[in-house]
Amino acid sequence: MTRGLQELEKILGVPLYERGPRGIAVTEFGTAFTGHARAVLAQLSQAERHVEEIADADRGQVVVGTHLAGSNLLLPRAIALLKREHPLVTVIVREATPENLLVELLSGRVDVVVGRLVHPRPAGTVHRVLHQESIRAVTGTHHPLAGSDRVELDMLVEYPWIVPGVETRLRQEIEELLTRHGLTVPADRVEATSFLTVRQLLVETRMVAVIPGLIAAGDPRLTPLPIALEPIGHDVGLTLAADRRLSPATQALIRSLTTAAEAVGHES
User: Fold this and answer.
1) How many whole angstroms separate alpha carbon 117 and alpha carbon 115?
2) What 8-state DSSP symbol labels residue 86?
3) CATH class of the domain comprising 1-55
4) Alpha-carbon dihedral angle through residues 9, 15, 17, 19, given to the nearest 10 degrees
5) Could you tell me if 194 and 95 are in contact, meaning their C-beta atoms sit under 8 angstroms apart?
């Protein structure tokens, strides 16, 4: 046990670690304190970055999280707009599931999350809607269903599917839609949220993906199929930490996202 930890236990008046024959084990008090300490360190990191950016707003850094609904059009366009006006701002993009990005956001490791807005809104966050997006069944242009005038759900489930993970709201909605029609997600499936992975699988296989419609927009190698998947659809927007002051770089990215979303909304 280091002197620093001993002094900390003395200040708190409770044991943070227990010493035993097998070494040191964290107590219940230690586990609780560690959670708060991590939050404080995250806030200190944010404060340090914010002070640096105030001194020179054009040289700041913004960490943005994204998932399938924001990764192919909206975010790249917004970053391009941002870099035209602030070329020295560093943009760090992290792609993960919505659930993992929420943890990163609340811990201070991500400044803003771009993608599908989850309802009800998670505690400790605020939402800003950017545009609405529909969900489409998409294949590669070579797929047997690509040239069909009409497609039914029972035709789709005869092929392998690409779907988001079971922890996502979109996956739940897909399963609910299939259940209403007496169907289930095909056993032959791939679970993926990476845009590049989904696209390449569609191009190279006979898989079907149920994904945000804009992912296939303007891509000559992908084909949205003529089938309505209502009521699946969602708002795309920003998720921010409710109690965190936005850095100048983050504010600049949000302005660019708002501008880019106006054009993307018309396309969707």
Assistant:
1) 6
2) -
3) mainly alpha
4) 110
5) yes
Q: Within its chain, how far is the Cα of 2 from the centroid?
A: 40
Q: What angle do CA 90, 94, 231 make, to 5 degrees?
A: 125
Q: Do domains 1-55 and 57-268 have the same CATH topology?
A: no
CB 51 within 8 A of CB 239: no
Q: CATH number of the domain at 57-268, please? A: 3.40.190.290
Q: Which two tokens stand for residue 207?
A: 């898989």
Tens of pLDDT, residues 175-197: 999 999 999 999 999 998 888 89
DSSP secondary structure string for all residues of 4-25: HHHHHHHHHTS-SEEEETTEEE
> How much is the pLDDT for 203?
96
Look at 71-75, 122-126, 192-196, 237-241 and tell me which has the smallest mean pLDDT. 71-75
Contact predicate 167/99, CB 8 Å: yes
| In contact, 132 and 268? CB cutoff 8 Å | yes
Instruction: State the pTM of this model.
Output: 0.68
Residues in the chain: 268
Instruction: Write out the E strands in 81-232.
Output: 90-95, 112-116, 125-140, 161-163, 189-191, 208-212, 222-224
Amino acid at 47: A
Domain ranges of the chain: 1-55, 57-268
pLDDT at 54 over 70: no
How many C-beta atoms surround the C-beta of residue 32 within 10 A? 13
- For residue 220, pLDDT beyond 90: yes
Asked if pLDDT for residue 144 goes beyond 80, the answer is: yes
The token pair at 39 is: 């939050």
